[in-house]
Amino acid sequence: MATKAFQKIYTKISQITKATCSLKASGVGYDELAMVNGKLAQVVKIMGDEVTLQVFEGTEGIPTNAEVVFLGKSPTLKVSEQLAGRFFNAFGDPIDGGPEIEGQEVPIGGPSVNPVRRKQPSELIATGIAGIDLNNTLVSGQKIPFFADPDQPFNQVMANVALRAETDKIILGGMGMTNDDYLYFKNVFSNAGALDRIISFVNTTENPPVERLLIPDMALTAAEYFAVEHNQKVLVLLTDMTSYADALAIVSNRMDQIPSKDSMPGSLYSDLAKIYEKAVQFPAGGSITIIAVTTLSGGDITHAVPDNTGYITEGQLFLRRDSDIGKVIVDPFRSLSRLKQLVSGKKTRKDHPQVMNAAVRLYADAANAKTKMENGFDLTNYDERTLAFAKDYANQLLAIDVNLDTTEMLDVTWGLFSKYFKPEEVNIKKELVDEHWQKQ
Amino acid sequence: MATKGTVSGVIANMVTLTVDGPVAQNEICYILTGGDRLMAEVIKVVGSNVYVQVFESTRGLKVGAEAEFTGHMLEVTLGPGMLSKNYDGLQNDLDKMDGVFLKRGQYTYPLDKERKWHFIPLVKVGDEVGSSAWLGQVDENFQPLKIMVPFQLDGTYKVKSIVKEGEYGIEDTVVVLTDKDGKDIPVNMIQKWPVKKAMTNYKEKPRPYKLLETGVRVIDTVNPIVEGGTGFIPGPFGTGKTVLQHAISKQAEADIVIIAACGERANEVVEIFTEFPELVDPHTGRKLMERTIIIANTSNMPVAAREASVYTAMTIAEYYRAMGLKVLLMADSTSRWAQALREMSNRMEELPGPDAFPMDISAIISNFYGRAGYVHLNNGETGSITFIGTVSPAGGNLKEPVTENTKKVARCFYALEQERADRKRYPAVNPIDSYSKYLEYPEFEEYITKRINGEWIGKVNEIKTRLLRGKEIAEQINILGDDGVPVEYHVIFWKSELIDFVILQQDAFDEIDSVTPMERQEDILNMVIDICHTEFKFDTFLEVMDYFKKMINLCKQMNYAKYKSEQYEDFNKQLQELVAERSV
Description:
Chain A: Residues 37-72 form the ATPase F1/V1/A1 complex alpha/beta subunit N-terminal domain. Chain A: One of its GO terms (molecular function) is ATP binding. Chain A: InterPro entries: ATP-synt_VA_C (IPR055190), ATPase_F1/V1/A1_a/bsu_N (IPR004100), ATPase_F1/V1/A1_a/bsu_nucl-bd (IPR000194), P-loop_NTPase (IPR027417), V-ATPase_su_B/beta (IPR022879). Chain A: Belongs to the ATPase alpha/beta chains family. Chain A: Keywords: Ion transport, Transport. The structure holds 2 protein chains of 2 kinds. By secondary structure, chain A is an alpha/beta fold. Chain A has helices at residues 130-133, 154-164, 179-191, 215-229, 241-254, 268-276, 304-312, 352-374, 381-398, 406-420, 430-436; strands at 9-10, 13-16, 20-24, 33-36, 39-47, 50-55, 68-70, 76-79, 87-88, 104-107, 124-125, 138-139, 143-148, 169-177, 198-204, 233-239, 280-281, 287-295, 315-322, 327-330, 336-337. In chain A, the strands form 4 sheets. In chain A, strands 9, 13, 14, 15, 16, 17, 18, 19, 20 and 21 form a 10-stranded mixed β-sheet that branches. Chain B has 14 helices and 25 strands. Chain B folds into 4 domains: 4-73, Beta Barrel (Thrombin, subunit H), CATH 2.40.10.170; 116-187, CATH 2.40.50.100; 217-440, P-loop containing nucleotide triphosphate hydrolases (Rossmann fold), CATH 3.40.50; 457-582, Orthogonal Bundle (Bovine Mitochondrial F1-ATPase, ATP Synthase Beta Chain, Chain D, domain3), CATH 1.10.1140.10. Chain B is of the alpha+beta class. The radius of gyration of chain B is 27 Å and the shape is globular. The longest helix of chain B is centred in the C-terminal third of the chain and has 24 residues, at 457-480. Classes of the chains: A alpha/beta, B alpha+beta. The interface between A and B is large, with 63 and 59 residues.
């Protein structure tokens, strides 16, 4: 970002911490950007003539006589069709060696949608993964995270979801992503020949952590451009939101704010909600769907980050390794899509809700049977059958390597019902049983 | 001369101003920046430095920007035309705003200045009237809305003139009053009231005692809430807080329902916008939206307006109560409001209380709940505000400041439980931890005994005891195994399961089961109590389970059937036959 002529240059920094520096300056606006010895910074506090700047790259090497120039604007992104297929850093600068983007410069982190102008989401997003499509159907305009431990293959699942979903644009916001994961996404997308509909904003672990704070707003500003101006269906992937929250904690700590639960800033709920609530179905047809990743520490969902996220998002998806089949599955008990009833049985076959519930109920019976077995109690014939069902169900449907359409998923489930149970054991409306029960 | 100020500091939405004249705590001012007028509220004064919280984004705000003080606190505009409106936390009419996105500094008038209302006088020239007395009424969505003496006026006044019955706009003078000194006071249909000040324009606030029917069995039968009562619903995410709140707001026997969506998901508000205009009020046959007002401050809207939103909602509720109406106010979620207070307290560098919440959080919560209640108005009529708030405890842990402080003031406690939600036992209200203090009120006992025509409280307490006993036995069975306890224990356990499945669990998405009128709840309770009092004969525990599963299935089929229909009676007959099979 070049500095303009006749700009006032300040050269006297009065205070420096790891992430911020302060100086005396006048005529500065809140949220405004500045360059401190060539490093990008943003105004986070003004008190009289003292201005505190958050330096995105960190303050390493900044001297007290550093040159500070205020840019007179908050962070912006240039938006146009040229964004498609490109890779950017947290500041919206290309990192793929391609040319600069030409387009309209818009401030990031723009205003909220008026709730009365929203439309109720109603379009199904098919992913081919039965643990999602069958049990926790996604709807465009929804916001939902994966709650996963760091060792789980959430990035692979997300990449699959992104490529299979019928969307016009996929926007990847990578925060604290390892370089290997970044290259993985790049590879998968280019191998699938989908690069032209993918836009990436990436902050890797090699980049300074505070820069991450810009990633979600950059990604969502681009998303709003395509959803509003071009009425496109946009899918935004944000990984990993826990890294984002960690960066928030670093900044609030440097600014001497009193931490609340788990050392997170007191404003964590609002900070996260501001991002997730950008998910929307516009009346004109465009939509923004957010699929995020929140990494957990040892599966603990009471930690402030997953806890606040759960209150904001419309459900959550849990991945779990199923030791019986040796594969990672989408956990049917702890996962939830709050919007699924808007589409399941309406946009899918009408037996969908009942089949889904019956299968999960039988899977729960199997879990009880397993506990019984482990405690040394005798198993009944029904218990044995539920255990056999559970194994097939996990293997053929819950596993993340499944790729079926919803009708096939329902037929496979009916097949399993018919193989292991009697019609009266599945508790499904008689007319549906008559229609779909498969003779053995 | 209005006081003016200049911006001297900005930290997020907290701004400090240097002022040139007097300012009041909670006074409203407008900060001028780049052509926008940003509304802000005074929260602290130190000498000539004034701290204000801005209800909008402060992006680009500079030191030296000017501010104008208004001389009044944050207030709402009250009058006919509020029903079925969608407001933001500051009572801006969201439907009147331009564009898809909310624009900074855009404020819209909450009422309709063009519309004419059919005014009917209720007083005549020469009548003596006091503050808040009813002067006339207009028809608002088929409900009478009273035009009252301005709430700010004290003492008595004489009616000097009043217009004839006819069509008038809200700004037309409909009545002229004269005070003791002979000064004329023109009155139109608009009232203004500062939101943070409780309206006390009633004679007395007795203990509430009338059941507020919600059609939700776990509330009406087990832990009833009363007209003018207070209750709260804490629960971890995914336990069905919103579904339960929506069910109550759809079904409750109230004249007016106000929903304050405070820092919650926008799509949930959209659900109300989409569904309520279609749904029919089971009590009046009119559209639900006609009796509803929505105050929406979704989680991405400015934080400071979140705090204002619950006060705005409460003040509108007080306005309708002063007309002698039954108002139900729902706030989802009060935790977001407390968090907004925490953010601000943090920016002001106040010493924090538990979990970094402000020290006075307890007083703030109790004052707010205190504004609800059942009142005798000065003219002998009654009105009520029933308040139900949800709480979103961090990590689902009920030992956190917002839950604990709310528990001190709310009289009903509906604890949503993760375990019940996981087992799909909805509504996931834990029957043992939850309570309603109103069950202990002798006034309530007298009322409900008359309403039901017989003994009630004793039966309710009996099922509660049975549920507790059932839980204890379930724990013993878990440790000792099915064979390790006597067969009678299994019978006691399954009787408690019967209560759970038939009374507590209710299908919010089923057309019939979702609403249970009080008469029907009485029948269900009697039926279940009768079965609980029956002695059964079993040889093994396996027989107990099979037998009670059949019984539960029949009772549930009855719940799904139309009341007293042929199908219902048929299931009932089968049930009685089944009971007779094994009763001793």
